[in-house]
Amino acid sequence: MLLCTQTVEVDQEVIITRCDDNHHPNVWKDHFLAYGANEEEKKHEVLKEEVRNMLVMTPSNSLEKLELINTIQCLRLAYHFESEIDESLSYMHNCYDEYWIGDLHAIALCF
Q1: Can you give the residue range of the structural domain that contains 84?
Q2: Global pTM?
Q3: Which position among 55, 60, 63, 94 has the lowest Cβ density within 10 Å, counted as fewest Cβ atoms?
Q4: What's the total number of domains in the chain?
Q5: φ and ψ at 19, to 5 degrees?
Q6: pLDDT single digits (tens) 77-109
């Protein structure tokens, strides 16, 4: 492989000339550039629906739901489930406010 660069200054102007050797074609072609984006998107949608169902099906007064919401937020995926999380937390706050008294871990998760 031949690669050369030449820089010449002519009348306050810089001229750069480059010469490349002819390269042989890539043996992989565009195999790694053309991946199944549609398959990945479908898989992501299925997984998001599974998590959404987990959020909806978990009982509202359970510590498990608070831990699930905390895990989703720690994974930085909460933006996918904003309405479900807001609805769950507001319902817990309004209906089970006194349920969490004495459980410091649950109170910390509520924050």
Answers
A1: 3-110
A2: 0.60
A3: 94
A4: 1
A5: -130, 135
A6: 999 999 999 988 888 878 766 666 777 787 777
